[in-house]
Amino acid sequence: QAKAQGRDGIILFNDELAKEVEYRLEIERKLYFALEHNEIELRYQPQFNRDQKIIGCEVLVRWNSPDLGLISPFEFVSISEKTGLIIELGNYIIEEAFKTLQAWEIMGLDLKQFSINISVRQFFHSTFLDEVKRLSDKYLNEDTRKKIIFEVTETILIEDVYRISVIINKLKQLDFSFSMDDFGTGYSSLSALREMPIEELKIDRSFVIHLGERKSDELMITTILSLAKIYDLKTVAEGIETQEQFLFLLENGCDMFQGYYFSKPLSKDHFELFYKESFSKKLSI
Ligand code: C2E
Ligand code: MG
Ligand code: MG
Ligand code: MG
């Protein structure tokens, strides 16, 4: 295996790694352009309550690059975290999401909650609070602000809970809520969870996917659900693809459900249609 000392102290072990670095640099360059040229779009994945009624959605970012094709948000969000572009990208996502929620309120599309992912660097950035406040003054009122849930992952626990709580509590004063995304996949301690001023826990797809096959994952999920009860947190399971998975979660007391079994993430227009159709079905019973 070839080993060479690259520039800036980067050690390149082989061609594959070099290609990977090259690809990331290309994404980085093109992402700047993409942000300015409307290549970044939002999708909305419906969330359902225990009666299988739509009660909310999660906002998910999409980048379809004319040159590179569809790139996973796992990839470009993490790259933008490293370069710092996540601040502009994140603000853009918040603004577009707020606009959609405002438009839906005017249309009478009534959701109980509306979740937006916030990355670690964005959360701790000095402008985060001001930017949320500015955009919320521009687009939202008290009723709509109450519906917004910011999803953060356990990786924010690289900082101490006190510092995190200060930020969260400032936004809670403005009626925003918080959810712990991908719970159980990172390194959060029980005491950290107890001290976090959050309202919701999201069960990661990686646990849901093996329901029915892996006893340990079932145990993980039932443990998370009872933990949520103890701390009085609402629960959402993501990545539900089968009826069996849904029923297991339902029987074990999960509050809300999200996954391809119900719906994929939808464009704004498709979400509106999906919402209306789900209501006409309800009415015709
Ligand atoms: P996440 O926040 O945990 O989002 C859930 C992911 O699971 C989404 O992937 C969603 O499309 C996918 N998913 C939901 N139900 C199913 C299912 O039944 N089957 C399968 N196979 N997948 C399902 P997506 O949209 O590719 O996003 C991946 C991750 O990228 C997100 O994980 C989140 O960490 C990040 N991300 C996405 N949008 C944003 C954003 O606007 N801002 C930030 N900071 N991160 C984002
Ligand atoms: Mg999420
Ligand atoms: Mg999640
Ligand atoms: Mg996840």
Automatic annotation (TrEMBL):
EAL domain span: 24-279
Domain of life per record: Bacteria
Name of the protein in its database record: Bifunctional diguanylate cyclase/phosphodiesterase
Species of the source: Sulfurovum xiamenensis
